[in-house]
Amino acid sequence: MNLALKDALHSPTRFALTALGVAFLMTAMIGMTGLYRGVVEDALLIIDAIDADLWVVQGERAGPFAEGSAVAPDMDRRVEGVPGVADVRRFTQFSQQFAFADGFRRATITGVDVPRDDGRWLPLSAGRWLDGGRYEAIADESTGLAIGDRVRLGLDDYDIVGLTRLMVDSAGDGLVFVSINDAAAIARRRTSEEVQLARAAHGAQASAKDGSSVAQESKIASVLVRLDPAVDPARVIATMEQWGDVRVLTTAQQRDLMLNARLWKLRLQILAFTGLILIITAIVVSLIIYTMTIEKLHEIALLKLIGARESVVAGMIGQQAGLIGTAGFALSIVLSRLVFPHFPRRVVMDPSDLALLGAALALICVVAAWVGISRASRVSAREVLS
């Protein structure tokens, strides 16, 4: 006869509520680790998908994701002439708020260097890629835009010709892809008042170049480079960095900057919260097992009076802790799959994280069972008569 199962069936409501409490704590831990995984995946989405070996950015900068960067508009032609360079593409990315359907939306505009790059590395869920024409855009579904919608970005209207899914930046804003020339035009938008102020302050000559009172600079954040397979990347990097006005980063360095510079504090905070919840779970489960043991002291004394060995009592308490942990973990998986898809940010339930959290809960249950067994071992058979 399994005494632990018998005890759980004797008070099913208490057992279910206890398991549910553990499940909620585990759900919170799964959510925190999943949120961290989601933020990392979103942050590295473009870096991993765009297929570049080198990123040529502004000198002494760590752009374009960790720090602002702007290179000369014709930097791609200069890079193209370096021996060992197979192809180059210009790249830019910036946040934009725009009006649509009587409201305002946020998106991150990403420039695709059409026709060198038609964006076929984008995972489309509907529609088509950019075909070289201007005033076309591919939007992520999270922006709320649909194929056929026309949205005003800067001073022009853009037709949505394709949709992606789960293409967002590290802040969770959906990505909108346009040609690099369209992206530069959107970034350069200025109000008529700015143009008038520029003309009034500096005259037509000073403002003629960009037509703005605000100092203008190139809107190209970096140049992406693919190398010939046989070339030594270090030699190409050394050649370009001799120019002095650029810095060349490898894709691995871009990933490292994103994770260990821009997202470092967020990662630390999420890990701190996860550790805190883990400690709370350990305390709660230990208290539950200890309280359940205290409530059964009379029955434990009776078992000892009729000759039950210590191992029988220890097994009952250990199995109870195991049942609570198993039921709580199973419920937390179900709750996570039901709840997290509705969260505004992506929550990634990585199997290795789930296995690690399951192992941590098992360890907590072992510690909790040890607390209960220690208390039960001090019960004497004579106490049943008291």
Secondary structure layout:
Layout: H1 3-10, H2 12-49, E1 54-58, H3 75-80, E2 85-100, E3 103-112, E4 124-127, E5 136-140, E6 150-153, E7 156-164, E8 174-179, H4 180-187, H5 192-208, E9 222-227, H6 233-241, E10 246-250, H7 251-262, H8 264-295, H9 297-305, H10 310-339, H11 351-377
Parallel strand pairs: 3-8, 5-7
Antiparallel strand pairs: 1-9, 1-10, 2-3, 2-9, 4-7, 5-8, 6-7
Helix pairs in contact: 1-10, 2-7, 2-8, 2-10, 2-11, 7-8, 8-11, 10-11
GO cellular component, one term: plasma membrane
Domain ABC3 transporter permease C-terminal: 272-380
Organism: Ancylobacter pratisalsi
List keywords for this structure.
alpha+beta, 386 residues, 2 domains, elongated, 51% helix, 10 strands
What would you say this structure looks like, in words?
This is ABC transporter permease. Its main location: membrane. One of its GO terms (cellular component) is plasma membrane. It is a multi-pass membrane protein. By secondary structure, this protein is of the alpha+beta class. It is built from 11 helices and 10 strands. It is elongated and about 105 Å long. It starts with a helix and ends in a 9-residue tail after the last helix. About 1% of the residues have low confidence.
